[in-house]
Amino acid sequence: MSSALPTLNALLNLISAVLLSVGYAEIRRRRVTGQHRLMLAACVSSAFFLASYLVYHATAGSKPFAGHGLVRPLYFGILLTHVVLAALIVPMVLVTLARALRGRFAEHARLARRTLPLWLYVSVTGVVIYLMLYVVYGATSSVPRT
User: Fold this and answer.
1) How far is CA 38 from CA 1, 26, 95, in A?
2) Into how many domains does the chain fold?
3) Beta carbons of 72 and 143 less than 8 angstroms apart
4) FRET pair for 1, CA 20 to 30 Å: which of 29, 90, 103, 107?
5) Distant-in-sequence, close-in-space partners of 122: CB < 8 Å, separation ≥ 6
């Protein structure tokens, strides 16, 4: 079961990224109801991701990165920014969501301009980290060492 969770986590991150992008497009078109639904769905997807991520790491621990050469500092640079921003984005999303739900739309919009790109970055880099860790440089990978 836990071996499927990294793939599920990447899928949930991808779903969040798509929902965030389409939600942004909706608000740019002034389609508020669609944007609300998409952003709430992104919150749900991200919440499921967080639960799955915590279960996986509580049961399986962490997986060392097998890449070598120049890809190694690239991976760890992405991982570092991802982890730091992932810790920051949770309260930002919660406050942004709370402002919208309370009808404080001007305050919501000001914070959302910062929250959206960071949340999108965290979601996309989550997928990139999964691909680097489990697909491209995974234990069964035949990628040559550089």
Assistant:
1) 29, 9, 17
2) 1
3) no
4) 90
5) 13, 82, 85, 86, 89
Confidence of residue 139 (pLDDT cuts 50, 70, 90): low
Encoding tokens for residue 97? 């969501």
In this structure, is residue 111 part of a structural domain? yes
Structure tokens that stand for 111 in this block: 């914070």
Q: Two tokens at 121?
A: 């970055």
Determine how many CB atoms are found less than 10 A away from the CB of residue 76: 12
Q: Find, among 130, 146, 106, 108, the residue nearest to 14 by Cα.
A: 130
CATH number of the domain residue 9 falls in:
1.20.120.80
The amino acid at 25:
A
For residues 20 and 28, give the distance between their C-alpha atoms in angstroms, rounded to a whole number: 12
pTM for the full predicted model = 0.90
CB 121 within 8 A of CB 88: no
Task: Give the residue numbers spanning the domain of 76.
Answer: 2-136
Contact 88, 118 (CB under 8 A): yes
On whether the CB atoms of residues 120 and 20 are closer than 8 A, the answer is yes
User: What's residue 2's pLDDT?
Assistant: 64
